Amino acid sequence: MQVNKQYFGTMADGRDVELYTLANDKGMTVQVMNYGGIVKSLVVPDRYGKGGDIVLGFDRLDDYLHQQFYMGAIIGRVCNRIGGAEFVLEGLTFPVTANAGIFQLHGGFTGFDRKLWEAVTSAEPDSASVSLHYVSKDGEEGYPGNLDVTAIYTLRNDNSLQLRFEATSDKPTPVNLTNHSYFNLAGEGSGSIYEHELTLNADFITSVNADNIPTGEMVAVKGTDFDFTQTHRLGERIHHLQNGYDNNYVLRMTSGIPGLMASMYEPLSGRQMQVYTSE
Questions:
Q1: Beta-carbon neighbour count of residue 69 at 10 Å?
Q2: Residue 58 near residue 64, CB atoms below 8 Å
């Protein structure tokens, strides 16, 4: 297992951005930068042993600094939308920055995707890691409390990539962290993902209003175009939907116990991705 660091660019304020490459013995590599905790590339061999980058990304730092798609980034403090750009916690109302019309999206104007994280690397015989650390100050984007966050990317020799989040706060505060990578198992730039075959361990989605704000209602997927409890191609029914697939799926699992959430297969390359979570 190997870890390498290289210079990737300089931000407008003069701070340098570093790119960390983790590599295993089977031809799989992942590149993570300390700006935004962004996964720049994830190279995985296909059925013939040829590597291909299966996440979308850019070649230059400047493109990441000015993107609108949160490409590959860590999202926080709260991913997705906060309706009305405010929340109530322990009887108090907290207004947060409204960076998307009348609501907040993905943590505000300068969420975790736009922060420069502190990075520490490590390598073991069967794994390589980069640990990213950031402290979100009390009041940042409207959130209460100083939030101490660590995100650890670990590549293993079994061709698995793990992302572990740890966060502690000195005040009650909402925290909902995620990675925002876009995947194409056929390889970046290879066309649409309509032929990808998806299975989801979920019987419900969360209902949303016209602004994609969750209403609190859970809607059963059985008998609908959102049902992936049995395997379907992504392009099989997507054209029946006005907004495609942009939904929260409610997973069938016990919190705290890692379980299989999703399985995706791409027939031409033979690549298969399985996603596990403890949430």
A1: 11
A2: yes
φ and ψ at residue 40, rounded to 5 degrees = -80, -40
202 in Cβ contact with 214 (< 8 Å) = no
For the chain, give the longest Cα–Cα distance: 58
Distance, in Å, from the CA atom of 234 to the CA atom of 95, rounded to the nearest integer, reads: 38
In 3D, which of 247, 248, 246, 278 has the Cα closest to residue 260? 278
Question: Is it the case that residue 241 has pLDDT exceeding 90?
Answer: yes
DSSP string for residues in 50-97: -EEE-B---SSHHHHHT-SS-TT-EE-SB-SEEGGGEEEETTEEEE--
Q: Which of 166, 135, 172 is nearest to 151 (CA)?
A: 166
Tokens describing residue 171: 């005040």
The owner of tokens 């791409």 is 266
Phi and psi dihedrals of 64, rounded to 5?
A: -70, -35
pLDDT of residue 277: 92
Q: How far apart are CA 79 and CA 223, in angstroms?
A: 29
* C-alpha distance from residue 27 to each of 56, 209, 260 (Å): 19, 44, 24
Residue 130 has pLDDT above 80, yes or no: yes
Collapse the DSSP code of 149 into the 3-class scheme (helix H, G, I; strand E, B; otherwise coil) and give the result.
strand
Helix (H, G, I), strand (E, B) or coil at 238: helix
Instruction: Tell me which amino acid residue 194 is.
Output: Y
Residue 53 and residue 42 in contact, taking contact as beta carbons nearer than 8 Å: yes
- As a whole number of Å, the end-to-end CA separation of the chain is 28
